[in-house]
Amino acid sequence: MKRRDKKVSPLGGDLVGVPFHKPVLLHECINGLAIKTDGVYVDATFGGGGHSAAILQQLGKEGRLIAFDQDEDAIKNAPDDERLTMVHSNFKELKRFLRLHDAMPVDGILADLGVSSWQFDTAERGFSFRFDGPLDMRMNRFAEKTAADVLNETNAEDLQKMFSLYGEVRNSKTLANAIVDARNTRKFETIADLKAIATANRMGEEHKYLAQVFQAIRIEVNDELGALKEILLQSAEVLKPGGRLVVLTFHSLEDRLVKNFIKNGSFDDEPVKDLFGNFELQFKAINKKPITATDAEQRENSRSRSAKLRVAERI
Questions:
Q1: Stretch 279-302: mean pLDDT, rounded?
Q2: Could you tell me the domains of the chain?
Q3: Rounded to an integer, what distance in angstroms lies between the CA atom of residue 109 and that of residue 2?
């Protein structure tokens, strides 16, 4: 048998057979989809292609996979497979593009909300405080607002809210005021600029504090919670009865939204009811409690420690 040449991702690694990046809770995510060989599925966050590769392995010739990613570098990872349709867009445009590609309704939707390892490890993208580089943090590099724009243009009150809500930064007011004072002398441009102010005003362990600060800014730059709400609402419209919704989150803000939506049909702790007080469920939770990584996976991949997986079925 002639050996098939490997297709190497421009981001590094082998996309034929074993993907260059193994996602967190990969088998649990794929099992949650309950894949039918002739089904239509959505990978809402293509990234390194790990989930898509695993889904394609279980699909037959009649199956379809629609994969979304707003990062043009991720799009370059797409394997040459006629069953795969790549969409260069944020997953908040889910319904519009499924209609465009005549792919509704679908049998399953998978959304891994973590930032890809490649994005974290590329200094010029600005996601990680481990390197110096521009304060960017845009998942879609065609978007206008960067992390530098947020720090240089947002008022102190809104900065405080951002750090408190999105990063749970305990001294959010102190940090916000320090940023406003610092930018009066010099605008923020690099990761080093931000680290200098954050570390000078940090509360608690430096690594954890910086992680919280960077998370808050990244969520703001990419409107991550707004996009999550959009895909959850649209999932109820595009999934077949019995179709699966599989969402992997990495912080409590995301997990709370997913949990409430599955349980209540809203993003609040209380269900949405009609004028007569009736409540009609849209989803049934497959796992009552979130699935978390095993001790072995956590040792192998530290990013898996905060991961929570929820699976629901469309009623």
A1: 94
A2: 26-117+225-314 (3.40.50.150), 129-223 (1.10.150.170)
A3: 36
